[in-house]
Design goal:
single chain, alpha/beta, Rossmann fold, 30 helices, about 45% helix, transmembrane, disulfide bond, glycoprotein, ion transport
Length: about 900
């Protein structure tokens, strides 16, 4: 007994404590299980496969969210209504949800038109309308109210720029845009046109196909497209119509090599759920879609989604979810987060007018008191979803990264990315580099497999298959047959193209080349082949290829035979100033040689008259290198070497100038402007160029043929002809190939753009023909055509050579004369220095004699010593070793002759034996 007494109170206390804790736990459990419903309306077409898969995503999203956030007090309660793909049913469902259920938000996953009706209702009731459409780009952009929210990553402007970057990267100039005839199909056009305006490309044709079009109607439309030149197609339509389009394109052989197809995200997002036959028809197609980063959460959601799909559609093939299902998942999470932020305030009723009748009038719905605040909560919600970062700007979920894929095999492969900052890139790592620049280079893409299993980039255009030949206009003046240099060049270029071009030449008379190009502008002709000069104003009517001829305007003149009979023609090659300068140089050089030689060389001594004759004879005989006198002084040899070089250059220039003077008539441009008549080709722009050069228009005469050119030049200006013909160099070359014996090209060459082939504005031939022109140098045909029309250049004067208009002047030889003068002056300084040093005795002896002590007398004595031949002219400072020996030998013979031993008969020291 004693042991049980203290235990009893403890048991009572423990029993009481346990009961208290159990009561608290029950209260807490009751409070935590109490949730606040958040009514959300869901309007969708229950017969749409896309919207039914969205229901699965919404269900999985609600389960995942509240499993993760089980402590949240709010719970979204969905109230689903069937729109039955009808606008009236959609609007009626919205009225019912607002009036009888008091929903706080309405979700409309799809159908832009139905969403528009629901939007009108929600705007009046101030209830947020959320949509994540896969095919409604124009809904949010067309609304100015804040009560419409789009949570799909549908940035049509960025998508258009991504497609444009691909077009630009592959250098395609024209594309065909194929879209469905719905609000969705038309909504993408403004974005695409705006993006194309930023670079040199254009949408040449828009093909509109109705969603209700039959296969036959689609084939008829594709047949139209086959007759067009562009082979690049952008497809913007829903998967149901797009799948049929590609099946028909495959049947029409438009998914073969040479074609390029680009699809927008409306089809790219659903590639994984398309039929295998459709994927087979789409092999080689390029697609773009918003980029969804891979993550563990995405993988988990995909598995749950597939399991849920199998539960609801048991027995059917499990489809792969699309990006539309991912948008639905993130939308529910964003809405659940915004609802929780309202807490207990979400049950505030609508403010409705009194009394409330049973009519379906929109005014009877009233206005939501929490709508504006709830809208703000939704727009401020930001989190990391399975699609990436979730945040709204102006009611639109933003995306900036697009994935570029290539349909290949059983699905698609990633070949690159596009971002607004970097452009096209192979990896996303380059987009984070701050130094990256925007690029559209296709080298940043992985290998693309094109239609027809080709890895060759499609050219982007082809000759239309309608059987019509290109109508090529050929300017004709007098001939009736189509031939000529330009025709041969054009035909050779067409043959060198990697494809066959059917064309026909159409001779055409014309008043001017501008009129002819205007016919191309109004599409009467496809192009012009001929002597059409590339001019800026002509580019308004047509596009030109690169020039295929050498450019420039020059002149031809008649070879003036009378000039050859002029007895003073030999004076014309050199100007008067140059003649006088040459005469002075000859005289000066002769004097220098005399100074250096006369004391030691007997040839330069003797009487005064003999020495003067020798000065001029020696100098002028160097003109023909006929001087026989042997110089003995090294300084003389140095002067003579430089002088002979000057004479060589001077005589060579004189000979060349005299030849030109006797060959080509000398007509300066100033002479032509002031009095001579000038000829030009009728209808060419040369007349306009001559006016700009200052020629009097009244002195200009037009001619049509080469024979008229020759006749006019033969007559001359005084006899009804012209003094010169101005034309473009190719014409002058052609003329000289026939008349080079009587006429020659002369004068300066004025710049021009040359001849080019003209095609219609925007023609895709321009690029390929220009490329063929640049590659012509590697072929043999240009030289063959030149030889055919211009002849062998060696048979006549070089057509491009020109003749100087005036005689040679002193300016051309100033450097030579200066070099000779400096050499001569240097030689004289050395000579006089040595002479004075060797004759210092004159100064010393003069000091002893008072009468010879003046400086004047000393100089006179020095001059006398210089004038007379040296008694002992042996000086190794002046004479060479050979001269030293010759001079010594001569003096010995002279002394011996005084004794009758030897007799010198010549100055050349020819020795004779004496009788002694």
């Amino acid at each position: 007994m004693s042991n049980s007494t203290p235990v009893t109170p403890c048991l009572y206390f423990l029993s009481f404590l346990l009961s208290f804790l159990m009561s608290i736990t029950m209260v807490v459990s009751q409070n935590t299980t109490t949730t606040i419903p958040f009514d959300v309306g869901l309007i969708l077409d229950l017969n749409s496969s896309i919207e039914m898969t969205s229901m699965i995503s919404i269900s999985v999203a609600l389960t995942d969210f509240y499993a993760t956030h089980n402590f949240y007090k709010t719970r979204i309660v969905l109230h689903t209504r069937d729109s039955k793909n009808d606008n009236v049913h959609a609007a009626s469902a919205a009225l019912d949800l607002l009036r009888h259920i008091n929903v706080k938000v309405i979700i409309v996953p799809e159908k832009s038109v139905q969403a528009s009706f629901v939007f009108d209702v929600g705007e009046k009731a101030q209830v947020p309308i959320i949509s994540f459409p896969a095919f409604s780009p124009s809904v949010s952009s067309s609304r100015s109210s804040h009560y419409f929210i789009t949570t799909s990553q549908k940035n049509e402007s960025s998508q258009a720029k991504a497609i444009t970057a691909i077009i630009q990267g592959f250098a395609w100039k024209e594309i065909v845009f194929i879209h469905e005839d719905t609000e969705y199909g038309n909504g993408f056009i403004p974005y695409l046109i705006s993006a194309f305006q930023e670079f040199d490309a254009q949408v040449s044709y828009m093909s509109v196909i109705s969603p209700s079009a039959t296969d036959t109607q689609i084939l008829m439309e594709l047949d139209k497209l086959m007759k067009l030149q562009p082979r690049v197609f952008i497809v913007h339509m829903k998967p149901s119509l797009g799948s049929r389009l590609f099946l028909m394109a495959q049947e029409a052989n438009m998914t073969s090599e040479g074609y390029a197809w680009i699809i927008t995200d409306s089809m790219t997002n659903f590639l994984n759920s398309m039929n295998s036959s459709v994927i087979e028809a789409m092999q080689g197609v390029i697609g773009v879609n918003p980029y969804i980063p891979q993550s563990k959460e995405l993988h988990t959601f995909r598995n749950k989604w597939r399991k849920k799909f199998f539960e609801k559609k048991s027995g059917t093939e499990i489809a792969d979810m699309s990006i539309h299902d991912l948008w639905a998942y993130d939308t529910v999470w964003a809405l659940a987060m915004a609802a929780e932020k309202f807490g207990l305030n979400i049950d505030t009723p609508f403010q409705r007018p009194q009394p409330i009748d049973n009519s379906s009038d929109i005014a009877a719905i009233g206005v939501s008191l929490i709508g504006p605040k709830l809208l703000q909560r939704i727009q401020n919600t930001r989190f990391k979803g399975i699609c990436g970062e979730f945040f709204l700007i102006n009611g639109q979920l933003q995306t900036s990264i697009f994935e570029i894929v290539n349909v290949f095999g059983n699905g698609s492969k990633q070949i690159g990315f596009w971002t607004p900052k970097v452009g096209i890139s192979r990896n996303l790592s380059t987009t984070s580099n701050s130094s990256s620049v925007y690029s559209t280079s296709i080298s940043n893409l992985r290998v693309v497999i094109w239609p027809g299993d080709s890895i060759i980039v499609p050219r982007g255009w082809a000759i239309s298959s309608n059987g019509r030949k290109l109508r090529i206009a050929v300017p004709m003046k007098t001939r009736v047959s189509v031939s000529g240099y330009s025709i041969d060049v054009f035909m050779a270029l067409m043959t060198s193209l990697p494809y066959t071009v059917p064309y026909e030449f159409i001779p055409m008379g014309f008043d001017s080349y501008d009129d002819m190009l205007y016919q191309v502008d109004i599409q009467k002709f496809d192009g012009v082949v001929g002597d059409v000069t590339i001019l800026p104003n002509r580019s308004l009517y047509a596009d030109f290829t690169l020039p295929y001829t050498e450019s420039g305007i020059s002149s031809i003149v008649r070879i003036k035979e009378a000039e050859k009979k002029n007895p003073w023609v030999f004076l014309k090659p050199l100007s008067l100033g140059l003649w006088l300068s040459a005469l002075g140089a000859f005289t000066f050089t002769g004097c220098v040689i005399w100074v250096l030689e006369h004391r030691i060389n007997g040839k330069f001594s003797g009487s005064l008259s003999n020495q003067l004759v020798m000065i001029f004879w020696f100098a002028f005989s160097t003109v023909v290198f006929a001087h026989r006198e042997k110089v003995r002084n090294d300084l003389s040899r140095m002067v003579l070497i430089i002088w002979v070089f000057v004479v060589l250059v001077l005589t060579s220039s004189y000979t060349a100038s005299l030849t030109s003077t006797l060959t080509v008539q000398q007509l300066a441009v100033s002479d032509l402007r002031n009095g001579e008549y000038i000829g030009y080709q009728s209808g060419s722009y040369v007349k306009y160029a001559l006016r700009k050069l200052g020629f009097d228009e009244s002195k200009l005469r037009a001619y049509n043929t080469e024979q008229e050119y020759a006749d006019a030049l033969s007559k001359g200006s005084q006899n009804g002809g012209v003094g010169a013909i101005f034309d473009e160099i190719p014409y002058l070359r052609l003329f000289l190939s026939k008349y080079c014996d009587r006429y020659a090209m002369t004068g300066p060459t004025y710049y021009s753009n040359g001849f080019g082939f003209a095609f219609r504005k925007g023609s895709l031939f321009v690029g390929d023909v220009s490329k063929a022109i640049t590659e012509a140098d590697d072929s043999n045909w240009p030289s063959v055509i030149d030889l055919k029309w211009f002849g062998n250049k060696t048979n006549c004067r070089e057509p491009g050579s020109t003749t100087p208009l005036t005689g040679l002047t002193i300016d051309s030889f100033r450097g030579l004369f200066l070099m000779s003068a400096v050499t001569s002056g240097f030689a004289l300084l050395i000579f006089f220095y040595l002479f004075v040093r060797e004759n210092m005795d004159i100064w010393k002896n003069s000091v002893a004699s008072a009468e010879n002590n003046s400086i004047k007398q000393r100089l006179v004595n020095l001059a006398i010593r210089f004038y007379h031949q040296a008694d002992n002219p042996i000086s190794k400072n002046v004479l060479s070793a050979a001269d030293f020996e010759d001079e010594a030998r001569r003096r010995i013979m002279d002394e011996a002759s005084g004794y009758g031993i030897y007799t010198s008969t010549t100055d050349d020291n020819i020795l004779e034996d004496s009788d002694h």
